[in-house]
Write a structure and sequence with these properties.
The strands form five sheets. The chain has an eight-stranded mixed beta sheet with strand order 5-6-7-4-8-11-3-12, with helices on both faces. With 466 residues, it is an alpha/beta fold. Helix 11 crosses helix 12. The protein has two domains: 211 residues, 3-Layer(aba) Sandwich (Rossmann fold), CATH 3.40.50.300; 200 residues, 2-Layer Sandwich (Nucleotidyltransferase, domain 5).
Amino acid sequence: MRLFMVDINQTEINWQYSPKQNKALDIIEDDAVEEELYGGAKGGGKTVVGVRWVYRQCCAIIRDFNLKPSKYPIAVGFMGRKRAADFKKTTLETWKREVPAEAYEINEQKGEIIIRGTVKIFFGGFDDRALIQKFNSMELAFYFIDQAEEISEDEHDMLQVTLRLKINGVALKYKGLLTANPAQCWLKHAFVDKPNTGCRRYLQALPTDNPFLPDDYIPRLERVFARRPERLAAYLKGDWSALSGTNIVIKQEWLAEAREKHFYTKDLRRLVVCDPARFGDDECVIYYFENTKIIEEDIFGKCDGTVVANKCAAMSNKHAIGEDKPVIVMDCDGLGGPIADFLKSWGFAVIEIHSQAKSQQPDRFINTRAEMWWTAGEKYSDGAIEEGGHVDDELDRQLTTVQYRFATAGRIQIEDKEEIKSPKRLGRSPDRADTRIMGLWALQFISPVQEKILTGRQQKKSPMSM
């Protein structure tokens, strides 16, 4: 245990540290070290060390320069993340939990924390343009960036040039502390591959180094990433190299295996699924599913909603078995809402998909889109999907291009269509893949065709009955 005493008023703060956290503090407090990356896995207690270190830095500056409370506190540091909203939900909450409430005041509007009325630190995100512009004029002594894998090297360098504060003409010991989870980014080259170069240091933090984690944390990590061993290697063992090219939701080899699958089941679930085109260069995609197989498709450009509704209705009618028509699944976040209304007014059963809506598992997924894609990826990895005879190279390319990332509180997020449409990525909207994913997702809500109806269809198609 380190016993940290605040010299200002002799207040004792009993902060407990693990041996690895103690080592992280020893490194950053070494006069030869200007910047430290403390990271390498989830659950290493990194953010706690960061916010405590920021407070320690403030108190040390107050003590060393004998500063007194003032109407105009001296700005000495910065604390932030890539997105201001993520910082406030995570890092700032850790600050509030760890630092005594009587020791500081927060001005949310200005993005400032004032320590004992004497010095202040700026806080926020690199997505705040006003804050970024302030970097040009800031003169600071230290910074703490949480989840530094989220920021670019240019953003990091922009912050480094703020380290030029002098108090009473005296230069300070300029410091930077970064925390991160493994990612394929500039940090790997700058710190991980060169762990003890010059004034930079890298210290790996693993869940096994943190005795304050819940007992079920590591088993839960193993369970969540059981189908993605590369992620487990990164987040449990801190293997930065394991993540190269692994943020694809659906892997190529899983799709290839699905082409070889042939399932035999008495249950037949059928649906028509549609993703209407939102923009002129998008595709409107309609698929007819039997279980996980695409049996028929209709793909065309953007057109009037009544045309799309009629095409969906025609496909459902075509595959009716007696009075039993396939349910129609519609993406209703954009143009699909009015189209779904048309279909329902004509008597069709419609399942509305709202991709941006709250997930059924909000602690795991940032929205329904993320849950649908991730669930499909798990089914492909489990060998639970049969592709059948439908072959579409463009669909395959779209399915194996879409990437995921971790958003606030470790929730899974799927990249937006606009990101995928970038010339550096797919170059077009993944409309076929989104339609495929919606269909696979919606199958769970479809009742199988009754056996007597299915038998009737099979007899009708039999050559013996002709």
